[in-house]
Model the fold of this input.
Amino acid sequence: MPLKEECSLCGKVLPLYLLKRCFRCKRFYCSTCIEYAEDGNVLCLNCARRKVLPRRFGTKYSPLSRYLARRARFTDLVTLSFHQIESIIGDSLPVVAFQSAGWWENKPTSAHRQAWLDVGWHVESVDMEKRIVAFRREKGILRTKKEVKSRQKQTSPKKPLPKARLRTSRKLSKTKMAKMVARLKNIERQRKAPRIYPGKLKH
Done:
């Protein structure tokens, strides 16, 4: 019987002679998951996409951090296959990720582990046969921007309200009282005085 191997991208199991090895990542892929470069070398779709895409910021696993941060708004458990993770990061996982469960441990010693630990997630379980990993969000850790802002508003000390100034009625001095009375008397005199019209009236 011919040797069989699984496509590292779509997961199809095919005879080894029907698979092609990627020139960059050195892994096997089926004919639908590869393309030929200008120099004739075989590239998988992940390597070909990384070659044409502009240089991205952050690490190789930064897209996984952003993905988990977005999912944190809706759920506390995310289950992904290894191939789904590769499509999220736009690159291939190393061979050791498919061979050893220790690669998925929650120890902050490498960039790929920081990708989920920094946004408040940890690996709950790994099925190496089915190639599935389950991420669990740690309770009490808020990592999204909206959550951090809301938590800052809740925990920030409230400023005490300024003390209201009570208006006290001031007593008028005798001088001001005398002036007000004099003004009122002048107004009354002007009202009672007969009006004088300028000029002479013609009969």
